[in-house]
Amino acid sequence: MVQLRALLFSALSAPVALAALNEPCYGSGGVAGVCVTTAACSASGGTTISGACPADASDVKCCSKTSCANGASGNCRWTSDCAGTTVSNQCPGPAQMKCCSSSATGFGGYSAPAVPAVGACKAVAVSGANAVVAAWPGRVRQIYCTRDCACPGTSDHCCGKAIDFMCSDAGGVPTSSGRQIAEWIMNNRASLNLKYVIWGQRIWSPTVDSVMAWTSWRSMEDRGDITQNHWDHVHASFN
Ligand SMILES: [Zn+2]
């Protein structure tokens, strides 16, 4: 009875869940990982690290598996990031986490995306888009700038001053690719006239934050899916 009461109390008083179960994270050494329970991770033969998922406290940790049965260099990664062949049912997390035969990152490989002309999409955003696409050839699949909303609105997209750099094989498909692009945007904040940048449920702003690795950026709430948690695109807002 005491146990039940304690259980009920903890369930009722639990804060809004931040854990983005089955969404990406970076495991030890920055390898591809997925946020799952520690039990699910060990059952799949993976290893966990703490502090790499939005809410580790609820027993959800970043799980990675760098050795699996698909060639000598087989490792678990998001299928969008696999340069080789994949095998299912070898890895922790959802179906998009597969055993990949290649040790190469497999990021990108896309033809240059169309960048909008200056107009509804403002010049600062257009030049930011061009700069990122030039610095990361093949890594950006698609560019989005404006959105159908009045300026000022809830998003800088409403004013044509934000860019979404889609960097996985399709919208809603997770990737580990965006971290390097997001950190590059931070490092080039001055020339880009950057307002803030978001990747993987973390945000960085030059007016608030010092330059640091993405892993130390401010964390954001769980918005519910891969796209809204920025695991398929880097968002950059410009001044
Ligand atoms: Zn955006």
UniProtKB/TrEMBL annotation:
Name of the protein in its database record: ARB-07466-like C-terminal domain-containing protein
InterPro entries: ARB_07466-like_C (IPR058593), Zn_M74/Hedgehog-like (IPR009045)
Species, as recorded: Cercophora newfieldiana
Stretch forming the signal peptide: 1-19
Protein's UniProt keywords contain Mitochondrion: no
Record's keyword annotation contains Repeat: no
UniProt KW keywords: Signal
Pfam families the UniProt entry points to: VldE
Location of the ARB-07466-like C-terminal domain: 119-231
